[in-house]
Amino acid sequence: MKRSLEIATNMQVEIGDDGVAELIFGPEGGMPMTDALGHAALGTVWRQLESEPGVRCILVRSVGKGFCAGGAPELVQDMLSSESTRLRVMREGRAIVQGMMDCDLPIVSAINGAAVGAGAAVALLADVSIAGHRAKIIDGHTKIGVAAGDHAALIWPLLCGMARAKYHLLMCSTIDGIEAERIGLVSLAVPDDQLLSKARDIARTLAAGSPTALAFTKRSLNHWLRAAWPAFEHSLALEMLGFASADAREGLAAMTEKRPAQFGVA
Questions:
Q1: 2 in the Ramachandran plot: left (φ > 0), alpha (ψ -120 to 50) or beta?
Q2: What pLDDT is stored for residue 266 in this prediction?
Q3: d(C-alpha 70, C-alpha 34), whole Å
């Protein structure tokens, strides 16, 4: 018997008898994005699930044609013009990263299709990240004229090394699941038709493990992330500063109009 929780629009949780809570991005068949409510919910859902009776592992997956494309256009547009929105999103971005780090439950991500922005953050900050071979992991911040903030400065150098992190974050490369596994950006890559079954097998194995042993191991390893926290705070602040810039306005306009951006032009 499964229990369901509504977290936000197109974001729900299903809790099974096996101890696994599945955080599911939707809509089914569409491209999941985070609107203002969804972005806020991603900062609080980890503590909420940690307090749910019987939950011993969290599996993040999508029923959409991609994992999650990050902020909805309306949210991003609002960030260009509203300082209060930028400050709110900055607080929520910090809460997402800190919430996943501090959650004692193991978190598994099953990455299908595109994982961008907040979607990439959740996908890669999971304790075990599993990508389908045709997954597309993209950090597109610099392409739209803002710094690669939120999770990227924190975790990419630890996962794939500084040289590769700089290359992909500066170039906004699209990284498929096979390449992501090869460079260490994800834990494992599997054929797309095996993604969900493999992720569920791993989540169930973790849910059946010693809660204290897994939690204490995660806490210890995450001190590497805590040591890099000043880099995260700095990058997040610079990202939000960038959203107030002419380059960000040009980058978003160019993306909307499907043309090359002309940055740095007065």
A1: beta
A2: 55
A3: 6
**What number of other Cβ atoms are within 10 A of residue 134's Cβ?**
14
Distances (CA, A) of 158 to 60, 65, 123, 231, 240: 22, 29, 15, 12, 23
Predicted confidence at residue 103, as pLDDT, reads 98
**How far apart (Å, rounded) are the C-alpha atoms in residues 151 and 212?**
26
Contact 110, 199 (CB under 8 A): yes
CA distance 14 to 35: 21
Q: How far apart are CA 6 and CA 1, in angstroms?
A: 17
> DSSP H helical segments within 184-245, as ranges?
195-207, 211-221, 223-227, 229-242
Give the gyration radius of the chain's Cα atoms: 18
Which pTM value belongs to this model?
0.96
Residue 259 region, left (φ>0) first, then alpha (ψ -120 to 50), else beta? Answer: beta
What digits encode the pLDDT tens for the residues 94-105? 999 999 999 999
pLDDT of 221-255, one tens digit each? Answer: 999 999 999 999 999 999 999 999 999 999 999 99
What pLDDT is stored for residue 196 in this prediction? 98
By three-state DSSP, how is residue 1 classified? coil
Q: DSSP E strands: which ranges in 32-163?
A: 57-62, 107-111, 114-116, 128-132, 136-138
Find where tokens 């909307």 sit. Answer: 256
Mapped onto helix, strand or coil, the DSSP state of residue 174 is strand
Measured between its terminal Cα atoms, the distance across the chain in Å is 61
Stretches where the chain sits below pLDDT 50 are: none
What pairing do the DSSP bridges indicate for beta strands 20-25 and 136-138? unpaired
